[in-house]
Amino acid sequence: MNKSQIAEAFRRLAAANPDPQGELRFQNPFTLLVAVVLSAQATDASVNKATGPLFAIADTPAKLLALGEAGLRRYIQTIGLYNAKAKNLIALCRLLLERHGGEVPRERPALEALPGVGRKTANVVLNIAFGQPTIAVDTHVFRLGNRTGLAAGNTPRAVEDRLEERVPAAFKRHAHHWLILHGRYVCKARKPNCPRCPIADLCRYKAKTAAG
Hints:
The chain is mostly helical. It has helices spanning 3-16, 29-38, 44-57, 61-76, 82-100, 108-112, 119-128, 139-148, 156-166, 169-172, 175-185. 58% of the residues lie in helices and 0% in strands.
């Protein structure tokens, strides 16, 4: 897509969903961080099912740390890789208390220094919790970037960098939400629902479907 087509694509996505929201449930920046860490290789629905009871009793680093790994595992054992995630989250809580006074840092380097937090997780937290115009590239955004011609790249970082260059500033704040939701419900991996797509005429995907 060229510059004007990209602007038009986001204009249409914005018109269809002016205030897009992520689907992970959270109460504060800390619970958001925990939910995003847990969501790696897991569905938002499975994370929400586990974090409802968890956050009811542990919505701060101190409270989660007090559970210990064994206690935390009991809440998240339905989520993939729960043993490793429990270990990372307990260590993460300890560092938040030791280095940041129990607060979630607003800077990428400090976030990425926490156990279990990579670039995508940091981008989500910076965007949702602190309103920064970061673009998190998950499997949906990676697929859309390449499939549509919006931002081709061989790695998530390459797609992120391309989106940073190409997405108009006015749309950056919500760009990854629009793309994630579009990829989750319309431009699906196996069978994209092209007849429902508001940007189908702009999309470079050649094998468009006749029915969703």
